[in-house]
Design brief:
Blueprint lengths: L1 E4 L2 E4 L8 H14 L3 E6 L2 H14 L2 E6 L1 H5 L3 H6 L12 E4 L10 H4 L2 E3 L19 E5 L8 H11 L3 E5 L16 E5 L3 H9 L3 E3 L10 H8 L4 E4 L2 H7 L4 E3 L4 H10 L7 H24 L1
Parallel strand pairs: 3-4, 4-5, 5-6, 7-8, 7-10, 8-9, 10-11, 11-12
Antiparallel strand pairs: 1-2
Helix pairs in contact: 1-2, 6-10
Length: 294
């Protein structure tokens, strides 16, 4: 699928984890259209290798949008598909990352060509909010090992004064279904419209990660709709959302319970949201300038 936006065109190829089809389709599209600049979204390492080869062969510019999993992948899949290709970042023209902390694990030569850019959450489209007396939270889950779902859902069922809807494909970790109760409901995978409706009509969002160098899109969605936000305590999340979110230590049930009890307290998030918007817009403006310079 491709979508033209101004003088930019998006190529999207649905593929398997080996990314062979994506690499092949990218090559065919490049040969056909010969863009002067190619922006690649990683984590897939083989796509970066292809980009570097295209750069050396056709002298095009290569920009890479690096997700945390590419440089910090500690799963078997990440070690196989991504880690062997990390050094190829030295050969691209611009690296895009999404939080400042990830700079701590990049080499100085790569940092020199890196821009920190925050997700443009201001453009998230929403459905109309409907009136409801239900005060529920949403945990937008990927059911990845780094999510403290077990700890959070255990605390929710003990707290009992709240309901949490857990979205996403719960069969990626079916053992968690034992937490289903009148306080915890697994929605399964929702289409975009149903997901946004659930989110917009919620009281707030609870999410988190056990890992550093990670920002969740669900946190930005909470900010977009000015919803109260509960996050796990990491340096990365604290530095980004310190003024906006409530935080919990995922290893402490008491800490999670405290965050759940505080989420309904009166908090004006307007100024904190404004600061995040300014920071995000500044990062996008800086990226625009860097793209013109390469």
């Amino acid at each position: 699928m491709s979508k033209a936006v101004s003088n930019t065109e998006l190529w999207f190829f649905k593929t398997s984890p080996l990314y062979i089809k994506a690499a092949h389709s990218t090559f065919l599209n490049y040969i056909k259209k010969k863009p002067s600049t190619l922006i690649l979204q990683l984590p897939q390492g083989p796509l970066l290798l292809e980009g570097v080869l295209l750069k050396k062969t056709f002298n095009c510019k290569i920009v890479v949008d690096v997700h945390t999993g590419f440089v910090y992948g500690h799963t078997l899949k990440g070690l196989i598909i991504n880690k062997p290709f990390n050094k190829l970042l030295n050969y691209v023209d611009l690296v895009i990352v999404h939080n400042n902390e990830i700079l701590d694990i990049l080499s100085p030569s790569i940092i020199a060509k890196t821009e920190v850019v925050y997700d443009p959450w201001m453009f998230i489209q929403s459905t109309e909010q409907t009136s409801s007396n239900d005060k529920y939270l949403v945990f937008p889950a990927s059911f990845s090992p780094d999510e403290p779902l077990l700890e959070v859902l255990s605390a929710v069922n003990e707290y009992k004064n709240i309901k949490v809807f857990v979205t996403g494909n719960c069969y990626r970790n079916p053992a968690l279904l034992r937490f289903s109760s009148s306080h915890v409901e697994f929605t399964g995978f929702l289409n975009r419209e149903d997901y946004m409706k659930l989110l917009v009509n919620s009281f707030g969002v609870i999410t988190g990660t056990k890992d550093e160098y990670t920002l969740m899109m669900s946190a930005w969605e909470a900010v977009a709709f000015q919803k109260p936000l509960i996050l796990s305590e990491t340096k990365t999340l604290r530095n980004m959302f310190d003024d906006y979110a409530l935080f919990y230590n995922w290893k402490s049930k008491e800490s999670i319970l405290n965050a759940l009890s505080e989420v309904f307290s009166e908090r004006d998030l307007t100024y904190a949201r404004k600061k995040l918007k300014e920071k995000t817009i500044n990062s996008l403006n800086t990226l625009t300038k860097r793209l013109k310079e390469i």
